[in-house]
């Protein structure tokens, strides 16, 4: 069968993933040339506050594509498809088929030939769901459709060892300096730079400081300790809607802690996780399970507080760090 001449494809193309690649590969199989029309930042603003910028989304496609593929700015729902005379096809996935049919109705009404519609199935991830930008933004899968922490990994206990000291000493976010006896100074600075997502505070001092500032974090994780010493007074957790208990000995990440973090992330109410043991390693699991744009705050002894926003890059770093732990079932 002779190849089509020019195929149009439109979409957001956020966090360029395996599903996007499959769609464009199919377009290149059918047509000599492929035009990728990428939704503008203005259009994306109503969809999600954490969608990548147009330039970042375009750059990801260009790094993957060859000379047969060009990228363009899409500023409305239809783009040039209803009136272009030099295109003969358009490609879509099942949920955008209706839009392609509407485009052909407009073309016929204008006296143009309808475009050949190429419908491509979704790519399925390892959990049986669809590989989509929304599932990636939700923190469920990576861009290859793999879980950040699968069901078997959630059943394991991870043991810290001294070889990880240097890796874990390096803050994964931005350090906000402030006097140790006035933690609200550093915390106030961090609050000015929050990403659009939820707030998760790790550590008794961080949680208490936010509560004293009349900010209730979406999730607070406490263990009754600071600098490995028991606090003389406990954090008042009455402001939280729900309390969850977790057992997590020092130097470990247990299934109990993993399950409690996962439960809190799926809870629409503010939640405090009270850890019997130690919560220092909790940020590793939080970033692996949390949506893109989540704000994770924890104290840096004698320096201030660290604010780390969950990103794909940080998720990959946490996955790599966890792979270096000793594991037991």
Task: Spell out the key features of this protein.
alpha/beta, 25% strand, 17 strands, 11 helices, single chain, seven-stranded mixed beta sheet, Rossmann fold, 329 residues
Care to describe what's here?
There is one protein chain. The chain is of the alpha/beta class and 329 residues long. It folds into two domains: 4-137, HUPs (Rossmann fold, 3-Layer(aba) Sandwich); 153-328, no CATH class. Helix content is 30%, strand content 25%. It contains eleven helices and 17 strands. It has helices spanning 18-30, 41-44, 54-64, 97-109, 133-137, 165-169, 183-191, 204-212, 255-265, 282-289, 312-323, and strands at residues 4-11, 31-39, 69-74, 89-92, 116-119, 157-159, 174-177, 199-202, 219-222, 225-226, 229-230, 242-248, 252-253, 271-277, 295-300, 304-309, 326-328. A seven-stranded mixed β-sheet has the order 7-16-15-8-9-14-12, sandwiched between helices. It has a five-stranded parallel β-sheet with strand order 3-2-1-4-5, sandwiched between helices. Strands 13-6-17 form a three-stranded antiparallel β-sheet. Strand 4 (89-92), helix 4 and strand 5 form a beta-alpha-beta unit. Helix 9 (255-265) packs across helix 10 and helix 10 (282-289) packs across helix 11 (312-323).
SSE map:
Blueprint: E1 4-11, H1 18-30, E2 31-39, H2 41-44, H3 54-64, E3 69-74, E4 89-92, H4 97-109, E5 116-119, H5 133-137, E6 157-159, H6 165-169, E7 174-177, H7 183-191, E8 199-202, H8 204-212, E9 219-222, E10 225-226, E11 229-230, E12 242-248, E13 252-253, H9 255-265, E14 271-277, H10 282-289, E15 295-300, E16 304-309, H11 312-323, E17 326-328
Parallel strand pairs: 1-2, 1-4, 2-3, 4-5, 8-9, 8-15, 9-14, 12-14
Antiparallel strand pairs: 6-13, 6-17, 7-16, 10-11, 15-16
Helix pairs in contact: 9-10, 10-11
């Amino acid at each position: 069968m002779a190849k089509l001449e020019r195929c149009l494809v439109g979409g957001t193309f956020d966090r360029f993933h395996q599903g996007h690649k499959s769609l464009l590969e199919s377009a290149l199989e059918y047509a000599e040339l492929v035009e990728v029309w990428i939704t503008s930042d203005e259009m994306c603003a109503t969809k999600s506050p954490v969608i990548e910028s147009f330039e970042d989304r375009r750059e990801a496609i260009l790094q993957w594509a060859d000379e047969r593929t060009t990228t363009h700015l899409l500023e409305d729902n239809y783009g040039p498809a209803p009136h272009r005379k030099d295109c003969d096809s358009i490609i879509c996935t099942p949920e955008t088929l209706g839009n392609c049919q509407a485009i052909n109705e407009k073309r016929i009404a204008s006296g143009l030939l309808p475009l050949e519609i190429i419908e491509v199935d979704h790519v399925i991830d390892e959990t049986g769901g669809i590989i989509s930008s929304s599932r990636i933004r939700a923190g469920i899968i990576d861009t290859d459709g793999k879980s950040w922490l699968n069901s078997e990994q959630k059943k394991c206990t991870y043991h810290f060892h001294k070889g990880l000291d240097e890796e874990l000493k390096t803050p994964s976010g931005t350090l906000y300096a402030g006097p140790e006896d006035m933690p609200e100074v550093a915390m106030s600075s961090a609050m000015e730079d929050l990403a659009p997502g939820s707030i998760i505070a790790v550590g008794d001092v961080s949680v208490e400081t936010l509560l004293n500032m009349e900010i209730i974090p979406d999730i607070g994780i406490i263990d009754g300790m600071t600098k490995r010493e028991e606090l003389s007074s406990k954090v008042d957790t009455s402001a939280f809607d729900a309390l969850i208990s977790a057992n997590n000995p020092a130097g470990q990440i247990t299934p109990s802690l993993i399950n409690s973090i996962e439960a809190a992330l799926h809870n629409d109410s503010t939640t405090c996780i009270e850890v019997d043991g130690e919560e220092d390693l909790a940020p590793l699991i939080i970033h692996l399970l949390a949506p893109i744009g989540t704000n994770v705050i924890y104290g840096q002894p004698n320096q201030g507080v660290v604010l780390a926003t969950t990103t794909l890059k940080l998720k990959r770093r946490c996955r790599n760090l966890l792979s270096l732990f000793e594991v037991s079932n």
